[in-house]
Amino acid sequence: MQxxxxxxxxxxxxxxxxxxxxxxxxxxxxxxxxTHWRDTGSQxxxxxxxxxxxxxxxxxxxxxxxxxxxxxxxxxxxxxE
Length: 81
Hints:
It comes from Mesorhizobium qingshengii. This is DUF982 domain-containing protein. Pfam families: DUF982. Helices cover 47% and strands 21% of the residues. It has 81 residues and is α+β, with helices and mostly antiparallel strands. The N and C termini lie far apart (30 Å).
C-alpha cells in the first residue's frame, strides 16, 4: 500500500468544534472517511472510500480519489471551499 498524494490539499471542517484539517493524501482521507465521518452510508462516501483505497494500491490516480473525496465532503457539508 502506498500513499497517494493529492495535487492540492482538501480543506475540511470536522468534529463538534469544527477543527480545520488540510488533507494532502489518500491515507489521511481514508482515516477521516472511516473514523470521523457523520454519514457513512451515502453513495458518495462509499465511492470516495473505494477511490482512495484504489489510489493507495496504484489502480487509480490520486487526483481521481481527491475528486471523489471532495464530492463526499461537499455532500457531508464539511468541505471548506
